[in-house]
Write a structure and sequence with these properties.
- With about 240 residues, this protein is α+β, with helices and mostly antiparallel strands.
- It has a single domain, classed as outer membrane lipoprotein receptor (LolB), chain A (Clam).
- The chain contains five helices and twelve strands.
- It is globular.
- The two termini are about 15 Å apart.
Length: about 240
């Protein structure tokens, strides 16, 4: 399965001009049949240029993964233990590319022209913004995407999409997402897995545009460096 931190990047793909900084909060819920599987996963994403910070948990300042593509490094922050551990960026990238490739095949979106988009009727208010809905259908799956005009661009994630392998593995699906007129505030991915109907619902609950503090993408003062996990699976 694709990793939650990567879902945070791939399921919210904006279109328009590039902001100086982007912050958003979202929840991701898995549903098998009609029953939720586990509690919703809450994620906070900070992105500016080739730097990204992903936090999990209920409050800001929680455990974080920081990707510094501008410096070719990544590290995890544990605020409770006040430690920072370097992550093998090569292994992390290989794992993310594998995850995205598996997801692309499962969604039937790897071939050119495999996905088609149709508008949904009506509008929906998400995070205080009125959104239009679209359905993107492929051979094995469908996505319902609700977008709003917020002035955020796909260029904000171009480097991360290329790094993760999404540009190649998601093929026509990514092409269709890029055509949508706005920022996706909610995405519902539905597919069949081992004969069961499985859905992943990602909803943005808050979003802010503007410059971000550089310290968000560095090891905080007072943290000590520790040895990181031996393999991506331990991340």
């Amino acid at each position: 399965m694709i990793q939650p931190w990567l879902l945070a990047v791939l399921l919210v793909l904006p279109k328009g001009s590039t902001p100086p900084g982007l912050y958003y909060e979202q929840t991701t819920q898995s549903v098998v049949g009609t029953s939720p599987r586990g509690a919703p996963v809450r994620t906070r994403v900070y992105s500016t240029g080739r730097r990204m910070r992903l936090e999990s948990g209920e409050t800001q300042g929680g455990p974080a993964l920081v990707l510094r593509l501008d410096e070719d490094r990544a590290f995890r922050l544990d605020p409770t233990a006040k430690t920072a551990s370097l992550v093998d960026l090569t292994r992390l990238r290989a794992q993310s590319q594998m995850d995205v490739s598996v997801a692309g095949e499962a969604l039937g979106a790897t071939e050119e022209g495999a996905a088609r988009t149709t508008p949904l009727e009506g509008t929906k208010v998400i995070a205080g913004r009125t959104c239009r809905g679209f359905r993107i259908a492929s051979a094995q799956a469908s996505l319902e995407v609700y977008v709003a005009q917020v002035g955020v661009g796909i260029e904000a994630f171009t480097d991360f999409l290329e790094w993760s392998g999404a540009g190649q593995s998601l093929g026509s699906l990514l092409d269709e997402l890029r055509k949508l007129p706005g920022f996706p505030l909610e995405t519902r991915v539905r597919a069949k897995v081992n004969g069961e109907s499985v859905a992943t619902i990602t909803t943005v609950t808050k979003m802010e545009l503007g410059p971000l503090t550089p310290a968000l993408f560095d090891v905080p003062a007072g943290f000590r460096m520790v040895e990181g996990p031996a393999s991506p699976e331990e991340d």
